[in-house]
Design a protein that fits this description.
The complex is a heterodimer of chains A (about 400) and B (about 350).
Chain A: E1 4-11, H1 22-37, E2 46-50, H2 54-57, H3 63-70, E3 80-83, H4 89-102, E4 108-116, H5 122-130, H6 145-160, H7 164-178, H8 192-197, E5 200-202, E6 205-206, E7 215-224, H9 225-228, E8 236-245, H10 260-273, E9 282-284, H11 290-299, H12 308-313, E10 324-325, H13 330-334, H14 338-353, E11 367-374, E12 379-387
Parallel strand pairs in A: 2-3, 2-4, 9-10, 9-11
Antiparallel strand pairs in A: 1-7, 1-8, 4-7, 5-6, 8-12, 11-12
Chain B: E1 4-11, E2 15-17, H1 19-26, H2 30-37, E3 42-44, H3 51-64, E4 73-79, H4 91-97, E5 105-109, H5 115-128, E6 134-142, E7 157-165, E8 171-183, E9 186-187, E10 196-197, H6 203-222, E11 231-234, H7 240-249, H8 253-257, H9 262-265, H10 272-281, E12 289-296, E13 298-308, H11 323-328, E14 331-332, H12 335-341
Classes of the chains: A alpha/beta (about 400), B alpha/beta (about 350).
């Protein structure tokens, strides 16, 4: 298997991009990544696009061909593939791209992710997002996506004594990071009181515990590591990739305070890379809800089970903490255009490893991690990156 | 020929409900809603009030303040998005009520919240062209907000009427400018009881873009800035939007205060800028300059540069109550009574 490097990254601002169409933001991020990689279009061998639900959000399927076409790549007839795994669509697209280069099938591939969520009503958006849960056993019985995460939060509070304040601290930290990221959807720092005084969504989760609906796109250019130096002085190597699945329904899990797929995917990625979580300097984890970040910290072994909330409260996950978590602002503050999220995480980590994260730069970041979740943890993709 | 306002009159129903009372029913934080929207309470029409009765009250007040022969009125337009009839004009009833019928042209206007100011512009054109001696332009609404929807905290009722002419003008309308695009931020289809809206889309790309473009467009065309005006009034779907837009355009709180009624009566839709302008005219002195920008969803803005004339000194303002006096007389409702007044309770057929 060949070693694989990221030679270019690009993204759009995240937010309510009402003046831009899906294809526009997709192309914008892709072109930015290609320009960053300093390659010409004829070098691109294949395209992978992460997208969860363009069919329902904008009535458009056949996303792979669409993006290839509007990128001007259709004339070269390159393979263009859409990848879907709910919230993990972007991370999974990255893994597909990685496999394509590692296997030797392709030399240079572009992996993009995009979602346009704000062209539908809030209710419709919530329904579409809930389709990542089990329609027959969860959604049809009234469970929404926030409600399922509220169950997890409530249980975690009951079993481990995680407090309402600690949940709020996740949002406070990520908004603080978002305030340092000019492309983040939310750029205002907030307080515990703001989080805990925001309208209730599904007890105990409030509005500020939930990632927003967003429009946005992100992309990376992958290349065989031995050729990467032809294009860039600062490649970031993907040193580990892990994917795992779990039951689609939350109620089929033995313990809803753990996402087994996170644990297994991370284990696989760490084993492949030959490192441990102690080596990770900066991590982008899937904080679609504040409780999700706490679970991720615990399930990947950064902190003991039940200690994620306390660690957050103690500031151990801030920019100068034991491990800097969600320096981009995370899904919570940077925004969560579903299909783009996994790629946006990779863009942030590579930016950190290059030392180009400006005010949110983690000092001497050598190793980074991305953690991308579909549904309530039925698909998890973890990637590890290292500065070359 | 100087075309402008010859007389005006206003009306706001006396009933009020607070965001706290509404929030209590829907499990929402009414106090936070009140603070966020800058709305302390909103006006509610009584069961026997609608856009027609509000228009008639305002038009009668307008006629009381001047000595114009109603038979000299050649045109009457009522702008509203809550005309009681889908087919059959509001304006004919108003024309009869002020004895302006039958030798005049009448029509109902609709452009969401700015149909009243569109009526003013139409009357300006007719008077300016010499087609009519006087025209009446009314903006009035009993606006709808679906139960539990964000709109329910603000959608209220009220209206004002303006007599447009070229003789004994108390305030000249020096220039008007409109800015219009197709921006579907808020709509109600035929037969639907409540409007629908695009949430935050009603803000930046809708209200703010159009109000700012309309206001700046007028300032450019009149070569004026905020400092040249004594008063300013903007469409006020809540207290927050007009306050923010005024600041962005360089107007001070002192310039905006008199015409900002949303905190006390809510969003009167087509009545909003007409009522704010009426409140300003209630206290304006000769030489004062007024800047007004109305907004209608869909979307567009109508901006006006107005100068108060010496005629205001002898004008019989006191023959009808001021807006301040009208809105002082209030009676608060609980949600149940409010729901009954607004036809939100499904009645049995027996």
């Amino acid at each position: 298997m060949r070693r694989v490097a990221v030679i270019g990254v690009g993204d759009t601002e995240f937010g309510e991009l009402w003046d831009s169409s899906f294809r526009e933001i997709g192309i914008k991020a892709g072109l930015a990544a290609v320009a960053d990689a300093n390659i010409s279009a004829d070098k691109i061998d294949a395209l992978f696009v992460g997208n969860m639900s363009a069919g329902r959000f904008i009535d458009q399927e056949h996303i792979g061909a669409l993006i290839a076409d509007y990128s001007g790549l259709a004339r070269d007839h390159i393979p263009a593939t859409r990848v879907e795994a709910a919230g993990a669509s972007g991370g999974l697209a990255l893994r597909q791209g990685f496999q394509a280069v590692a296997s030797g099938l392709h030399n240079i591939v572009v992996v993009g992710g995009a979602e346009k969520m704000t062209d539908v009503s809030d209710t419709e958006s919530a329904n579409i997002q809930s389709s990542s849960a089990d329609q027959e056993w969860e959604t049809v019985l009234g469970a929404t996506y926030p409600a399922l995460h509220a169950l997890i939060a409530r249980r975690h509070m009951h079993v481990y004594g995680t407090t309402r304040e600690q949940l709020a601290d996740v949002a406070v930290k990520n908004h603080k990071h978002g305030s340092l990221n000019p492309k983040a959807q939310f750029q205002k720092p907030i307080t515990r009181e703001v989080v805990m005084g925001s309208p209730l969504v599904s007890s105990p989760l409030r509005v500020f515990d939930c990632a927003p609906s967003s429009d946005g796109a992100a992309a990376v250019v992958l290349c065989a590591l031995d050729q990467a130096k032809n294009y860039t002085d600062v490649p970031g190597e993907i040193i580990g990739t892990g994917q795992a699945s779990d039951t689609l329904s939350l109620h089929d899990r033995k313990d809803i305070c753990t996402m087994e797929a996170t644990r297994v995917a991370a284990k696989r990625a760490f084993e492949m890379a030959g490192i441990t979580n102690k080596d990770v300097d900066v991590a982008e984890v899937h904080d679609n809800f504040t409780i999700s970040e706490i679970l991720a910290l615990e399930d990947m072994g950064f902190f003991k089970k039940g200690e994620g909330g306390k660690a957050t409260e103690a500031g151990l996950t801030g920019l100068d903490g034991e491990v800097a978590v969600n320096t981009s602002g995370g899904l919570k503050a940077r925004g969560d255009p579903i299909g783009a999220t996994g790629l946006a995480q990779a863009v942030e980590i590579v930016t950190q490893l290059r030392g180009k994260a400006d005010k949110r730069q983690v000092r001497d970041a050598q190793v980074g991690l991305t953690h991308n979740v579909g549904g309530t943890g039925a698909t998890v993709v973890v990637h590890l990156f290292r500065r070359v | 020929m100087k075309v402008g306002i010859v007389s005006y009159g206003a009306y706001v129903p006396r009933y009020r409900i607070t965001p706290e009372e509404i929030g209590k029913v829907w499990g929402a934080d009414g106090k936070a809603m009140s603070k966020g929207l800058m709305i302390n309470c909103k006006s509610v029409p009584a069961p026997d009030e609608d856009t027609i009765t509000i228009s008639v009250e305002a038009a009668r007040a307008m006629m009381r303040r001047c000595e114009v022969n109603p038979q000299d009125i050649g045109a009457l337009y009522v702008g509203s998005e809550s005309h009681p009839y889908a087919v059959k004009p509001t304006g004919t009833i108003v024309a009869e009520a002020i004895e302006a019928a039958p030798h005049l042209t009448v029509a109902d206007f609709e452009f969401a919240c700015k149909a009243g100011t569109a009526a003013i512009q139409t009357c300006m054109g007719l008077v300016g062209a010499g087609m009519v001696k006087y025209g009446v332009a009314i903006g009035a609404d009993t606006s709808q907000g679906a139960p539990g929807d964000a709109l329910e905290y603000s959608a209220s009722a009220g209206g004002a009427a303006f007599l447009i002419g070229s003789e004994k003008v108390i305030a000249t309308i020096d220039r008007t400018y409109s800015y219009t695009t197709d921006t579907p931020d808020f709509w109600r289809r035929e037969g639907e009881m409540y409007p629908r809206h695009g949430g935050r889309f009603t803000g930046e790309p809708a209200y703010f873009k159009h109000v700012l473009s309309g206001a700046k467009g007028l300032m450019e065309r009149t070569n004026t800035t905020a400092k040249d005006y004594t008063y300013a009034v903007f469409h006020q779907p809540n207290g927050k939007f007009p306050t923010r837009v005024a600041k962005q355009l360089g107007f001070s709180d002192a310039q905006v205060k008199s015409g900002l009624l949303a905190p006390l009566i809510g969003n009167t839709y087509s009545g909003a800028v007409p009522l704010g302008l009426s409140a300003i005219l209630d206290e304006a002195k000769a030489g004062d300059r007024i800047f007004a920008t109305a907004y209608g969803s869909g979307a567009g803005s109508d901006a006006f540069a107005i100068t108060v004339t010496d005629e205001i000194e002898t004008y019989a303002r006191a023959k009808a109550p001021t807006v301040k006096q009208i809105i002082e007389n209030v009676k608060f409702l609980d949600y149940a009574t409010y729901a009954k007044f607004r036809g939100k309770i499904l009645l049995g057929s027996g």
